């Protein structure tokens, strides 16, 4: 490591609040699937900044659109209309099958809005506000107080109690555990279609279909958090499209702006019509012309690049290669995932593997102590998979 990199890291550790144990690397620029640190070393990026950079780094058309918008208009507030927001909303509705869009600045904020919409829907219906929400253990929905309250990891929640009340937890793919916590007060079930931070666990078709059926039967809103698994990552624009169901509310963020901070919650039918109204919710930045130019351009590029179809072509190759690693190594106990969202579970912590991968020029991350997580940019080709597998095998030890 150069003196300069050491200095930058020392300064960061002095000035930034230490809420992350960061890897000792300072990235300087990106190009396609490559990241370069300030010493000029190249890395293959199979993490995309937590599944954000779907288009790879430095997409020319996205960058040009953003530059044009910066010179035109950056922010106006939600007291006025702006065309990029209307364009982004129209594209997002078409991609998701939902009816209305609220733009936020992050994933957690999208979850907050979704929870408020669900509570408001039940409040309007019943005239009281004591409803319960069911979430799943092992889930991740964000770090703000509401999103944290539905995050199924006790250690994340405990220091910050009391969070919002009336949250019950069931288990992913265990319908009996959800039925156990259902009550007449349940107003919503929130879950990730594919759990991300919790270790790459896709919902089974039986589980999600039955959850949808229960929600329909009891007028409960189904909120699907697709912040990590949405935006084409699993081989369909949204993962729920592979299950033949629609949620009442869906949250998205991460790849939506491909690096420009933007999220959204989308509502359908009764959830769109009978929940949040004027005065119920708001944001200063959310849906501003710059962020929405990012989302609209990203959605338009997905179409022109046939990106979702591309995921369908390249993901089976990545899955096959990871299956190969599993069959060759006795310490790999599971390989699972959907599309380009994959996990390789070891019988030991993977921290050393991550460090060796970085030394070898491969950016990967974990999802839980023992699970390697693969969230490459969606534009990868088979040759990139080959390069990654080669670097990974050298890093496994
Ligand atoms: C990342 C993530 C969030 C939180 O998004 P932020 O933009 O970090 O607030 C919520 N839900 C899921 C499934 C996520 O992966």
Description:
The radius of gyration is 21 Å and the shape is globular. The protein is an alpha/beta fold and about 400 residues long. The longest helix is centred in the C-terminal third of the chain and has 22 residues, at about 305-330. It has 2 domains: about 5-55 and about 305-395, Aspartate Aminotransferase, domain 1, CATH 3.90.1150.10; about 60-305, Aspartate Aminotransferase, domain 2 (3-Layer(aba) Sandwich), CATH 3.40.640.10. A hairpin with a 5-residue loop joins strand 8 (about 195) and strand 9. It has helices at about 5-15, 50, 60-70, 85-95, 105-125, 145-150, 155, 175-180, 205-220, 270-275, 290-305, 305-330, 350-360, 380-395, and strands at about 25-30, 35, 40-45, 100-105, 130-135, 165-170, 185-190, 195, 200, 220-225, 250, 265, 330-340, 340-345, 360-365, 365, 370-375. The strands form 4 sheets. The protein has a 7-stranded mixed β-sheet, sandwiched between helices. Strands 1-2-3-15 form a 4-stranded mixed β-sheet. It has a 4-stranded antiparallel β-sheet with strand order 13-14-17-16, covered by helices on one side. The structure holds pyridoxal-5'-phosphate.
